[in-house]
Amino acid sequence: MDFIISMGWYIIPFLIVLSILVFVHELGHYLIARYNGVGIDVFSIGFGPEVIGWNDKAGTRWKISWFPLGGYVKMVGDADAASTPDREALKKMDSDTKARSLFYKSVWQRIAVSGAGPLANYFFAILIFTILFATVGQRYTLPIVQDFQIESPAEKAGLQKGDSIKAINGEKIERFEDIQFIVQQHPGDELQVLVDRSGVILTLSITPILSEITDNFGHTHKVGLLGIKGSEPGYIKRSWLNSWWYATKETAFLSWQTIKALGQVIIGSRTTEGLGGPLRIAQMSGEIAHSGLIALIWFMALLSVNLGLINLFPIPMLDGGHLLFYFLEVLKGKPISEKAQEWGFRAGFAVIVGLMVFATWNDIVHIFIK
After folding, report:
1. Under DSSP, is residue 46 helix (H, G, I), strand (E, B) or coil?
2. What does residue 196 show for φ and ψ, rounded to 5 degrees?
3. Residue 279 contacts by C-beta under 8 Å, 6 or more apart in sequence?
4. In the chain, where are the structural domains located?
5. 26 an active-site residue?
6. First vs last Cα of the chain: how many Å apart?
7. Do residues 300 and 17 lie in contact, with contact meaning Cβ atoms separated by under 8 Å?
8. What angle separates helix 243-267 from helix 293-310, to the nearest 10 degrees?
9. Region 212-231: what's the mean pLDDT?
10. Strand, coil or helix: 190
11. What class, spelled out in words, does domain 138-236 have in CATH?
């Protein structure tokens, strides 16, 4: 019984957060599809058998299904939840039904519908960050060296207390947190650090060492460290007038850091230990929920950014895969052949299943074996 209760503390926050993000994503598709005159058969949160549902006046079946890891909007002419065209049904459509099918809309209308889901997640993240930065504040620490660890790479390279770090490898530094993001991803790589020392601009070459750190949840990570300490972090409130700008920058920064990290995994300069799946997200959701509502809301914004970004990857079955086919159609002047699309969807399915299996195995090793 205690185990079941304990698991509930992890699973319930995870399902709440995921359901909100899926709803936002699918609502983006739904609204732009309806705006372009596309008929919607089903709007589902979750997959599998229906738990509860209702029909609206437009004929859409809104429902919650048993398997809660995702959701979909099934449009007129779709064969499945991945919006694969139902070729046989499309051929038998009358003119009125064709007018409501996404398949018969212009390529730019189809691009708008496919891109609306990821963009909805981005807009939702920006909205959350805007509200948090204007009410609670944005986490902020000045990028000034306050102290060193003994025999640290930074101290050996000539960095001094009071130095203000302005840029690393050409990337502008505004907060101490920016330093951490960059340095942790470059263990063993020589970095060019631009420093302001009492008005004198210097460039120092510093190589972060590979170290193990333990985060607030007791998880161990292998990262690069310079061995410097900043001041105690605080929160700076942004005005409602400009908090949206800082929220947009934060969203873009998180997206770029994710892309960089994935690129490093692909080229082998970063391990795959950090790739997590639903089990680890559920664990983190529960742990962050214990830290308070504000922390959980911030985590939801972070996941919304990642959900939007991942769905833009050019993998068939994801929104990015549909966008890839549509942009190729724009370039060619005609749709990609049915056979090419079919093989693309098969390959995309294999990639997604492979990644899910790999990420879930990583979760099991991380949570239950280590």
Report:
1. strand
2. -105, 110
3. 360, 363, 364, 367
4. 138-236
5. yes
6. 24
7. yes
8. 60
9. 70
10. coil
11. mainly beta
